[in-house]
Amino acid sequence: MTTTRRLIIAAALALVAAGCVTPDTTPSATVTTLMPGSERFFRINWDVTPERGDTRRLSGYVENTYGEAAGRVQLLGQALDNSGTVVGQRLQWVHGAIPGFGRVYYEIPGMPTAEHYRVTVWAFERIQGRDGGFVIR
């Protein structure tokens, strides 16, 4: 198979895969991740601290409990009232990759004051080493 033909097939597959992604998916009380099962691969803890005005900052560590590194990790912070209704939410990127069995500090500023908070992994990509480098899969 020629290189050009391989590139055309790869591009077609990428377009099909991109068509399966729904950009209209938004976080809610029931939709807390784009990656079902991600709770098996990550542990998250958080503290809530006051900021200026009536906002709060969520901060803590996201721990990768899987042996491969994770990159492009995006966290969803949610503020909930007593009934579990989302009263505010924010997506926040984690800086850098999280090594396999490692952890990274994060902060989610600007959250509204609420009775409860929740932080989940919204999205991530696995990074697998090959020939001394990294490949995102």
What would CATH call the homologous superfamily?
Lipoprotein YajI-like
Structural class: mainly beta
First-to-last CA distance: 23 Å
The rough form would be described as: globular
Mean pLDDT: 85
Counting DSSP E segments of at least 2 residues, the number of strands comes to 8
> Which blocks of ≥5 consecutive residues have pLDDT under 50?
10-22
Largest sheet: 4 strands, antiparallel
Strand content: over 45%
Provide the helix percentage. 10-25%
Number of domains: 1
Q: What is the CATH-assigned architecture? A: Sandwich
Determine the number of helices (DSSP H or I, runs of at least 4 residues): 1
How large is the radius of gyration? 18 Å
Could you give a quick summary of the protein structure above?
It contains one helix and eight strands; from the N terminus they run H-E-E-E-E-E-E-E-E.
Topology (SSEs and partners):
Elements: H1 3-20, E1 42-44, E2 47-50, E3 55-64, E4 69-80, E5 86-93, E6 103-112, E7 116-130, E8 133-136
Antiparallel strand pairs: 1-3, 2-3, 3-6, 4-5, 4-7, 7-8
Descriptive account of the structure:
- The protein is mainly beta.
- It has a single domain (32-131), classed as Immunoglobulin-like.
- 13% of the residues lie in helices and 48% in strands.
- It is built from one helix and eight strands, in the order H-E-E-E-E-E-E-E-E.
- The protein has one helix at 3-20, and strands at residues 42-44, 47-50, 55-64, 69-80, 86-93, 103-112, 116-130, 133-136.
- Strands 1, 2, 3 and 6 form a four-stranded antiparallel beta sheet that branches. A four-stranded antiparallel beta sheet has the order 5-4-7-8, with no helix packed on it.
- The longest helix has 18 residues, at 3-20.
- Residues 10-22 have low confidence and may be disordered.
